[in-house]
Amino acid sequence: MEVEIQSSSQGQGVVGSEQALPRAIDQENPKTPNKLTLIPLIFLIYFEVAGGPFGEEPAVQAAGPLLALVGFLVFPFIWSVPEALITAELSTAFPGNGGFVIWADRAFGPFFGSLMGSWKFLSGVINIAAFPVLCVDYLKKIIHTLDSGWPRHISILISTLVLSFVNYTGLTTVGWAAVLLGVVSLLPFIVMSLIAIPKIYPHRWLSLGQKGVKRDWNLFFNTLFWNLNFWDNVSTLAGEVDKPQKTFPRALLVAVIFTCVAYLVPLFAVIGAVSVDQTAWESGFHADAAEMIAGKWLKIWIEVGALLSGIGLFEAQLSSSAYQLEGMANLAILPKFFGARSEWFNTPWVGILISTLITIGMSYMDFTDIISSANFLYSLGMLLEFASFIWLRRKMPAIKRPYRVPMRIPGLVVMCLIPSAFLVVIMVIATKIVYLVSGLMTLGAIGWYFLMKICRKKKIFKYSIVEDEER
Fold this sequence. Notes:
The protein is mainly alpha-helical. The longest helix has about 35 residues, at about 295-330. It is about 65% helix and about 0% strand.
C-alpha cells in the first residue's frame, strides 16, 4: 500500500478537503470497501458515547432527583452539543481516518498530532478493557464458576478475542451489529417506562434530595461528564463513511437527540414511580427499579440489555482505536505497517491486534487509578482539540467545510470556553496518584514521538510519504 499525504502547510487559498488529507491508495486491491451509511453510523456514535442509560443512576445519589434531571437536560447543551458541532465541522473538512489526530496535526504540527494520538489512544484502550470484564460480571450471575479464579480469567480472554474477531470482519458488520444491539438493549427501558406511567408521582421530580444526605458534586459532575462524552471518537472512522460531508452532520444530530432521550425517559420514569432511599441510586439501580415496577422478569431483561450494551461499547470503541492507529500511520506519525489492512475484510488488522493485546493485558489489572488517569489524559486531549478547532478556523479560513458551525471566531471561543472550564475543574479535583500516572503517561507519549522521529531519520521502519519539513 502506497500512501501519499499532501502538505500540511496548505490553506492559503481555496483548498478542497480531500487535498488536506492523508490518502491511501491500494494498488493491489483496488476494490472500494463497503462504507458506513447513516443508520449504522448513528448507532456507532450512540455506543461511543452511551450505550444506554446504564450508569446514569449515581447522579441521583449524588445530588437528588431534581438536579439529576436538570443535569441531563442542560449538560448536553454545554458539553455534548459543542463537542458534536466541532466533530461535524472537522470530520467533514478532513474526512480521513485519524480524526482528532489529523486536526491537531494540521493545526499545530506533527508533535501535537502525535501527542493527541497518544493521549486519546491510551484513554481509549484502557476504557475498552472494562467491557469484557463487565460482560463476565453479568454472566457470573448465571454461571457462578465465573466469579473468580482461572474460569474467570479464561472467560475474559475468550470474550475479548471473540469480540475482537467480530471487529476484524468489517466495520459495516460492526455498524449493523450496533443497530441490533442498540434496539434490543433499549427495549426493556421502553417497556419499563410505559409500565411506570400510571405509577408516576410528578412531585418526586422536584425533590432536591433527602435531608441529611450530603451532595457529592465530584460524583455528580463526573457522572454527567462520562455519560455524555466521547462524541469525537467516531471521527477516527471518517474515511470509512459513505458521503461523510452529508452523513456526519445528520448522524451526529440524530445521535445527540437519541442519546439524550435514552437517558431522560427512564430517569423520569424511575424517579417518578419508585420511592427509595437516595443512597440506593448506585450504578445498576435501574435493574432493581425494574423489578419494583414490573417484576423479576424485567430486571433480568435489563441485565441482559446491560450485557449487550457492553458488547456494543466494546465494538464501537475498538473500531475507533484501530482506525486511529491507521490514521496515525497515514500521517507518518507511526510506521507504515500500523496501517496494514486485511486482504479478506479490508480492516486495519494491526490496529485491531495491538488494541486487543493491550486490552487483554489491562483486563486482569486492578486499574481504578489508571482509568482515572486515562480520563485525565482524555481531558487534556479535549483541550487540545478545542484549541485545534479554533486555530484551524484562523489558519485555514478558506478550506472547504461542507458543514460549518455558524459562528465567527469570537463566538467559537465562547462556545469552547464553557466545556474547557468544566474540563479544568475535573482535572483540578483529581487525586495525586492520577497526576502522577498521567504525568508518566504524557512523558512516555513525548518520548515516543522523539523515538519515532529517530526511527524515521535512520530509516529503521518504512513510513508514509509526507511533504512536511517538520517531520
